[in-house]
Structures are given as C-alpha cells and as structure tokens.
Amino acid sequence: MKKIALPAVGVLAEILFAIAAIAIGLLLAVLL
Amino acid sequence: MNMAIEKPVNKLYPISYFIGLIVLSLGILQFLPAAVSAIYSEGKIVAVFLLTASITVLVGVGMVLLGFRYKNVPLSFGEGTVVASGAWLLGTLLCALPYSLSGNCLSYLDSCFDVMSGLTTTGLCLIQDMDHLSNGMNMWRHMLTFVGGQGMVVLALTFLTKDQSSAYKMYVGEAKDEKLFPNAVSTSKRIWAISLIYLAVGTAVMTVGALLAGLAPDRAFLHGMWIYMSAWSTGGFAPMSQNVLYYHSAFFELATMVFFIIGSFNFALHNAVLSGRRSELRHNIETVTFAITLTLLTLITTLGLMKNNVYPNAVALFRKGFYQLVSGHTTTGFMTVYAKQFYHEWGDIALFAMIIAMLLGGCACSTAGGFKAMRTGIIFTTFKMEVKRMLLPDSRVSEQKIHHIRDITLTDPMIKSSFLIVMAYIITFSVGTLVGMLAGFPFGMAAFECASATGNVGLSIGVTSPAMPAYLKLTYLVIMWLGRLEFMSVLTLGAYIVRKVGRKCD
C-alpha cells in the first residue's frame, strides 16, 4: 500500500480550502 | 464418465457470514462506551453496555458460524448490496438496545430512530434529557455517527476480513463506489487511516476550543472529541441539547465549520491531497461544484435574512445564517440557532435556500448525504454539453470531460445513473414532505424536516420530537436509511426478501 506522503501539508491544504469556503460567507455577509 | 452434480449453495449462508462479521464488529465496539462509563462510575450504564455488547457479539458469532462453511462462495452485486443494507437494518436494531435498556428513549422505535439517525450521520434526536446523559451513552452516540460516516462495511472490511472476492460488492452496497486502491479491503483501510489522522488533529483542536469555552479539562476532552467525531462524519450530534450554540464560542464555530467542510470531501480526494496532489482541491468537479452552489445559496440565504432584518450585523449574519447554511449544505446539522427560529424568524427565502442546500449535500464517497456534488456537477455539465451540441453541426461529435482525480469522459451510463439517483431523492423528499403534512405540520416545516432526513443532515425546524406520530418517526427512519445507502441497496434487499418469501409460499 502506497504511503500517505506529507499528510501534514495535505491536511493544511484541506484546512485552507475550508477556510477559503468560509471566507465566501464572511465576505458576502460584510459586503451585503 | 463420472460427473458429480453439485447442489447450488443457498446464498443466505454467505450473506449470513458477512452480516455476522459486521454485527460482530458493532458488538465489539460497545465495550468502549462501557469502559468510558466505568471510568465515570456509571454503574447501570456499564451493565447495560456489557449486556448489549454480549448480545450483539453472540448474534454476530452465531451468524458467522452459520455461514462459515460458505464464506468463500462469491456473492453477486445484488447479494453484496443485500449484505450492506441487511447489516444496516440488523445493526440498527441491535445498536438501539443500549438506548432502550438505559431508559434514555421513550420507546424502542425512538431508540431505533436515534441509532439510524446516528449511523446515517443525520443527527435528528428523540433522546430524552440529553443535557444529563451519561458519558457512556454520549460516547456510544458519537461512535455510531463516526462509524456510520466511514461505513459499517468499511469497518468490518478493515478489521475483520481478508476476503477479496465479495468485498467490493458489499462496499458498493454501502454507497461508496470509489476505489482508492484496486481492492476494497485496502481502500477501507485507507479510509480509516485518513479518518484516524483527522481524529487526532480534530480532537486536539476541539479540546483546546472547549477549554477556551470554559469546560473542565476532562469534559473539554470528551466534548472536543465528540464534537469533532460528529463534525468529521457530518453527523450533527452534540452532547448538549443546545447543540453547538451551547458553547457560545466563535472559535468553536469556526473550527467545526472547517472540520465538517473537510468531512464532506470525497475520500478519493482526501487520498489524492494527502498523497501530495494538492492541486486536486482546485480542479476536482466536486469542490468546484460545492464552491459554486455554496456561493449562490449564501447569496440567497443572506438576501432572505436581510429582507426580514433577522440579524443586526454581519457577524451575527455569518455566525447564524452562514453557519446553518454550510452545516446544511455539508449535511452536518450542527446548529447555532433554536429549531423554532427557522420557522418563526428566517422567512421563506432563507428556508428555501436551506432546503436546496440540504438536498444538494456534500461529495460522493464521503460521510455526507444528499444528491452529492458529483451528481450535481454531472447534471449541470450534461446541460452544458447538450446546449453546446445544439449549436454544433450535426456531423460533429462532441465529448465532455469532467475532472475527478483524473480526466473522465462523461458517458451515458454515468449521466443516467446521476439522474436516476437524484430523481429517487426528489421522490423520497416529496413523499416524506406529504407524510409530514398529513401529520399536521405546515408545508414549510414538513419540507424542511424531510429535506433534513433525506439528505442525512439533522437540522431541525421543530418537527422531530418524541411527541410526533409513530408513522412519521418510521417514515423519517426509512428515509434516512434510503438516503444513506442511496436507494438501490435498500430496494434490492426489499426485492430479495419478497422473492425469498414468494418462493417459500409457492
């Protein structure tokens, strides 16, 4: 089985994606 | 010539073997809440869990022994799905025993409702006096939602079987059709590896959040772990009746949002990103679809809430409006408002956006429910493809590709399957809404609660309560089961039982 390479960076990338999605809501709440 | 004619094997035996394995794993799991209860000196609950664990293990072992001789008989796809849906049904009936014997639910039906809600990662609750629930019972509730998110078949394949021939068929029966590796057992192991990596990260973050919110250290750890398990599984269970609102913490709300968004990702996407292919996050059809639908629905919800002047400022709009929307869209069901506020304050426009979000759901092959972003993406790509085809000369043959881990050419069977499952969700939602209205609830409430059950969300507008009619509880219970297994497995089980009973009657 292939090892999960650099999971910490991967986890960070997923967290950043989630934060970007959350930023959509914050931005729209502020702009509107 | 000497020819031995072999009698065909009754497939009920290998089916019994595999369902027994899954039931056995559920029985073994019950020793963990028993240990938590023992640490907190919850004597009665320890006894309940030891009793129910023994019953479940005995049933599991009995079924395994019954079919042991035939364990290598290959199952067809139909029989694999019968194993999955049968295990979910029997698992629910057995996992409901601790709820029932502990006296935390008014009836066995209520217990089964809560267990199905947990296993399907829905989050609707009928449990009594949740704020004073024992730690053991809370552990059990959150374990159910965590295991249900990954899948019971995935659990059994990971820890209890090395069988390869029938594994993939059962795995597909549980609505997980992505192969992270060529065989289903390695795929199941990777799904658990990814979940356990995040369990460590998430529990640590949520424990800090609970400490900052003012909880005592041991309680902070337990609440942190439970809330994380629920967020990752897009489950929606929480140890307190006020759900996430109980903590009154912006950090807690942000952290849960991050974890349930990540929890709604496809396990194939997790596998790609954690293996170093991070650009997949930007190009995958599901993340792109999710970003588009989330933006549009945020716009509609925000406009709806602003029209009714529900929240006075942007922060309240974000922490209440957007939180509920993302919670619904990822099919989590965490709430930072009271159920009745939806109906009395939010207004029709915001509720409409919430219902659409709950039905659309998260990614395929994830812990989330709903139509799934994959199918929404395929349907919209098909519309785009058809419009493009109209504009092209008849002689030109166009082909459309979608990106999911690799570029995939969109084929008619993929399109047909997407439309079929989405139609099944819409029909189920319509029937459930009708039953809700027959029980006396107005259209808005019935539609919201049914969308929540169909998409395995768990947000409640106030319909789900121990006082609701038994037929409505049963309707939602079946809808949660249908929605989680994506219809075909449950329908195959029904057809299988009808065929078997029919043959006996002939």
Describe the model.
The complex is a heterodimer of chains A (32) and B (506). Chain A is mainly alpha-helical. Helices cover 78% and strands 0% of the residues of chain A. Chain A has one helix and no strands. Chain A is rod-shaped, with a radius of gyration of 15 Å. Chain A starts with 6 loop residues before the first helix and ends with a helix. Chain B is mainly alpha-helical and 506 residues long. Chain B has helices at 12-29, 31-39, 43-67, 77-95, 97-102, 108-119, 135-150, 152-159, 167-173, 184-212, 217-232, 250-263, 267-274, 280-283, 285-307, 314-329, 339-360, 373-391, 412-438, 443-454, 470-485, 488-505; strands spanning 401-404, 406-409. In chain B, strand 1 and strand 2 form a beta hairpin. In chain B, helix 10 (184-212) runs antiparallel to helix 12. The longest helix of chain B has 29 residues, at 184-212. The two termini of chain B are 36 Å apart. The interface between A and B is medium-sized, with 24 and 42 residues.
